[in-house]
Amino acid sequence: MAFGDVKTASGLKELDKFLADNSYISGYVPSKADLSVFEALGKAPAAANVNALRWYNHIASFNAKERAAWGGQALPQAAGAKPTVAAAAAADDDDVDLFGSEDEEESAEAAKLKEERLAAYNAKKSKKPVLIAKSSILLDVKPWDDETDMKEMEKSVRSVEMDGLLWGAAKLVPVGYGIHKLQIMCVIEDDKVSVDELTEKIQDFEDFVQSVDIAAFNKI
Fold this sequence. Notes:
The structure is a single chain. By secondary structure, the protein is α+β, with helices and mostly antiparallel strands. The protein is 40% helix and 20% strand. Among the domains are: 9-69, no CATH class; 134-219, Ribosomal protein S6/Translation elongation factor EF1B (Alpha-Beta Plaits, 2-Layer Sandwich), CATH 3.30.70.60. It is built from 8 helices and 4 strands. A 4-stranded antiparallel β-sheet has the order 2-3-1-4, covered by helices on one side. Strand 2 (165-176) and strand 3 form a beta hairpin. The longest helix has 23 residues, at 104-126. The chain is rod-shaped and about 95 Å long. Residues 98-125 form the Elongation factor 1 beta central acidic region eukaryote domain. Residues 134-220 form the Translation elongation factor EF1B beta/delta subunit guanine nucleotide exchange domain.
C-alpha cells in the first residue's frame, strides 16, 4: 500500500490512514524511515489529518542530535518521488532479523533513548501543581440570649485554628427579641478540615454559643 507523494492530498490521506494503526513508519521506535517522511512533508499536516499530525509533532519533538542517532534505513526515493508505505514495509523487513542478528548496539541505544525520554516526561509531570479541593462555608453561630457578648463570641470563634482553615468576613443578623446570631464565613481544605470537628470546637465555647448551623456550603 503506497501513499505516494505526501505533499499531495491523496498521499497525505494514505499516510494518515497508515499511521492510524502504526506509531512509526517502520518498526516500533523512531528511525531514519520516519525522518525521510518527516523531511518530505516539510511542514505539519492540516489538523484534519489527525494521525499524521500526531506523528509529525512527535517526530518534531526530537532534536537534531537525537534524530542523528536513529537507526534503520532511510526510505529509497526515486527522482521526484516521495516515500511510500510499501518502501517502509520493505525497510522494516530488512531491519528485522527473525534469527536474532539485529544490531544489538543500535537496539540498546534506541531503548536507552526511549527510557530517557520517559524519565524526562515523568519528571515534568511530577512538577505539575496538585489541585487542592476547598469549600466555602457560611456558619450561623447562635448565642444563648440577648445578653451574650457578641464581640467576645466572634473573638472566640476566630480563635479556633486548624491547618487548612481560613476565617473570612462576619456580621450580626437579628433573629428576634433583641437577639442576634453571628454569621461568619470560612474557607477550608477538604482533606485537612472536618466540618463536624470544626462545629464541635465552636460549640465548646459554652459560655457564648448555644448552637452552630451550616447556612451555606459550596465547593470551590
